[in-house]
Amino acid sequence: MAKSIAGPEIERLIQLLAKLPGLGPRSARRAALHLVKRREQLLRPLGAAMAEAAAEVKVCSHCGNIDTRDPCTICTDAGRDRSTVIVVEDVSDLWALERAKALNASYHVLGGVLSPLEGIGPEDLTIRRLVERVAEGGISEIIIAVNATVEGQTTAHYIIDQLDGFDLKITRLAHGVPVGGELDYLDEGTLSAAMRSRTKI
């Protein structure tokens, strides 16, 4: 069993940092040391910002985004195209699309995907709320932007079934060769999807 190299407070900081995505035990130790050495410039402001975020962060009751207000900043943005709604699995996907500045649309966060093996059914996601939003009117297109996994595709098909009967255009993100990708390094599934989704040039 490894011996502790610092007091319990620092060890706890390292353990918590190691739980963050992309940080293993070694990276967490480096990050903790960096923070502790710069207590006034980094550690104290970070601690205060985290405490404030923990107290103020809310889930948007309209779209499912995370923000410090409800409705969120995106939902209250008057410049958004409210007739187009992009359906994503998680808030991280919403933020990725926003960084890409691909479309100035509205969003709907599902909170995951259907996965019978993990016990995640339709009632565990916000699919019903999506149907309610469509029923309220004003939405002309739903863009399903879920991951190209078996669970993601199952979820997409379920959503399409639930929206059957509405006067609505339903589209999904194109799947295939990424920008800068080389054919030799792509898997067969990606190449097949790219061939099926080919477009005229």
Automatic annotation (TrEMBL):
UniProt keywords, alphabetically: DNA damage, DNA recombination, DNA repair, Metal-binding, Zinc, Zinc-finger
Domain Toprim: 83-178
Zinc finger annotations (C4-type) as residue ranges: 60-75
Organism: Aureimonas ureilytica
Pfam families: RecR_C (PF21175), RecR_HhH (PF21176), RecR_ZnF (PF02132), Toprim_4 (PF13662)
Gene3D superfamilies registered for this protein in UniProt: 3.40.1360.10, 6.10.250.240, RecR Domain 1
SUPFAM superfamilies: Recombination protein RecR
Gene from which the chain derives: recR
Keyword Endoplasmic reticulum: no
Gene Ontology molecular function: DNA binding; zinc ion binding
Single GO biological process annotation from the record: DNA repair
Family according to the record: Belongs to the RecR family.
Functional note: May play a role in DNA repair. It seems to be involved in an RecBC-independent recombinational process of DNA repair. It may act with RecF and RecO.
Keyword Metal-binding tagged: yes
Name recorded for this polypeptide: Recombination protein RecR
SMART domains: TOPRIM
